[in-house]
Amino acid sequence: MLERIKRTYHIMKPITKILVANRGEIALRVMRSAREMGIKTVAVYSEVDRRAPHVLFADEAVCLGPAPSSESYLKGDKIIAFAKELQVDAIHPGYGFLSENAAFAAAVETAGITFIGPREHAIKVMGDKLSAKAAVEHFDVPLVPGSDGEVTDVEAAKKLATDIGFPVMIKASAGGGGKGMRIVHDVADFENQMQRAVSEATNSFGNGAVFVEKYVQNPRHIEIQVLADEHGNVVHLFERECSIQRRHQKVIEEAPSVVLTPELRTAMGEAAVNVAKACDYRGAGTVEFIFEPGGKFYFLEMNTRLQVEHPVTEQITGIDLVKAQIQIAQGEVLPFTQDDLKIQGHAIEVRVYAEDAAANFMPGTGTLREYRRPQGLGVRVDDGLEQGMEVSIYYDPMIAKLITFGADRSEAIARMKRAMSEYRISGVQTTIDFAQFVMDHEAFVSGDFDTHFVANYYTPEALDKSNPELEAVGAMALSNLLQGQKETQRTSTSNGQSRWKQNRS
Questions:
Q1: Which residue, 503, 239, 247, is CA-closest to 397?
Q2: Using one digit for the tens of pLDDT, what is the confidence trace for 239-274?
Q3: Which CATH number fits domain 217-344: 3.30.470.20, 3.30.465.10, 3.40.109.10, 3.40.50.720?
């Protein structure tokens, strides 16, 4: 078991100025909560983000460098230097970029600046799946049957896989996003798939360590939000259902999950709290579980940051998670206990990506020629773009997070369908048509689905059938676009590109 780091209790000075080391919707999201708390904010930006909403919203802003993230948003030393120069009290990393970089968190604290997140130790432990499993194994946290650590001997790994029972999963210890993962259905294919997993892990993360575990064939992906303060108090804020995924990445989330009984919710919540205790956690974090039919669940990993899907938890609990992060970073005691927390209503989040769902969710870029958000009761839009701005090739293609809230799941779904019908986006192909397909599908409506929803139910042809009105509008727009093009432009669409790439001006 990894040695635990002893807490140091101290009262931190109040935070009066925060540098947000991120961009887009999450930077704007953090700044809004900070402003409500009377805290000034500093934005950082790349050259292509100079006029971005988060830059204009902040009290101060500094340019980090050229567009590539390696030359801007990943420049930890430069961010810290600006923070010191501008006399900020704390840095909020958002998610992505440097949010789970243990060295950056340590450097921030060494510079005398508060890192709004966990300490280096927790990030390191939970950043590696093997060390995470080792840390939690004595804290009554259920683990997927598998190897105790890294596997290097192919023959020994084969025997272990046979003992566990096929199918098994070979998984990279580092990283995420579905990379370095291989499902193996029989022993004859094991060696080849292990070599592939090691190679991909090495190329993607610089770490070829892999391990073997049981493959849960029809899993749901359920995660638990936790909050932990400096004084030993840890609570969970219930679950989020994250089983609608493409390429092992979430695209639609909701809270609460339809499959959890009160007893299971309590058990998973207690397990998540124990995971946080196992790494001496501080701040907001998310513990992810695999849930299989019959009610068994297993620890998957812990994300040591704010999650993209955190708004659905805020909607059902009424707690501003960013404010909670800041309060914890100031040394405050959590103002509520587990018994104070209750689920109210139901929330759904759809991630609106600049992707072509009909072309295997191929990402795209382009200018938002039209951008009008839906409005009305129970509708929330978290975004960082405006009409006329470009969805850049340099960053994640997510345009917005569309969140709806209702008294129950049916109302939340109805509001989501209404909100999506009101969303007006042109200039890029988006995943709204796919999300509409999901909201209408019987498997989703009934709650009888798992992480294989896309593989089991979705085909590109389904979009044409499920959204005839959208197709008619799209056909008219394409006709008008082609009519206005110069004769010298090529109009052929036979090159295999995504529909957005074919149709954009």
A1: 247
A2: 999 999 998 899 999 999 999 999 999 999 999 999
A3: 3.30.470.20
**Residue 86 burial (10 A CB sphere; 0-12, 13-18, 19+):** middle
> Which two tokens mark 388?
């006329």
Consecutive H or E run containing 122: helix 120-127
Dihedral pair phi/psi, residue 212, rounded to 5°: -120, 140
Across 402-428, b (16+ Cβ under 10 Å) vs e yields: bbbbbeebeebbebbeebbeebebbbb
Decide if domain 17-116 falls under CATH 3.40.50.20: yes
pLDDT digits (tens, 9 = 90+) for 376-393: 999 999 999 999 999 999
Single out the catalytic residue among 23, 119, 282, 305.
305
3-state DSSP call for residue 414? helix
Q: Which amino acid is at 51?
A: R
Classified as helix, coil or strand, 225 is strand
3-state helix, strand, coil in the chain (%, to 5): 40, 25, 40
The answer to whether the pTM exceeds 0.90 is no
- Residues 201, 207: Cα–Cα separation, whole Å: 6
Contact between 238 and 260 under an 8 Å Cβ cutoff? The reply is no
Domain boundaries, the chain: 17-116, 145-214, 217-344, 470-503
- Decide if 305 is catalytic: yes
The number of angstroms, rounded, from the C-alpha of 416 to the middle of its chain's C-alpha atoms is: 20
